[in-house]
Amino acid sequence: MTASPASTDPGPSTRQDIARALARRFTGWSLWHGTATGHWWALAPAWHRRQAGLIEAGGPEELAELVWRAQANERQAGSPAPGTAQGARRRRPIPRAALRPAPRPSL
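RESULT FIELD:
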């Protein structure tokens, strides 16, 4: 007998607990379960975004594996750790023009 998808869903409180545990494991990453998509998501911290960015996975185990790989790839690429002098030099302020909303197209 096969379990129905509803019976295998851990529920909202358990998904939040899983997301918190993943966030503790991967410091600096934003991790969550998308209620609309049913997928797990991770947004890399600013110092990882050149290599990683936004990661999507079907389950928390897969997400943990993908985040771990992204971190390993970043270390191999030789990116400086956050808070180091090299890392601080790479950060540039965002130009004010980039923060303004784009003009609306005329109809």
